[in-house]
């Protein structure tokens, strides 16, 4: 596995009424409302060089989304981008897992137990 930090796709504006309506039909219904808050992505790549898991961090470094999970397919998983398309800062697995666990433990504490995790590999 390879883990990267990226600022690609972090220039989202606040969602319009139309985009909020489209969100209901999305493969990522919980993600899209958090996109404007994402200032950095942490992405796990599998042996196939494709994204496996992803975490969106806000400007304070707090995870605002993580997936895939049972409700959200994933932003980077829904692209055809590979590891070679990024070329960003490599991070260690421990940092990725720390942020992953931070997101899910926060959601469980808040009673959002619908957010099951899915791991690659």
UniProtKB/TrEMBL annotation:
This is Uncharacterized protein. It comes from Amphritea pacifica.
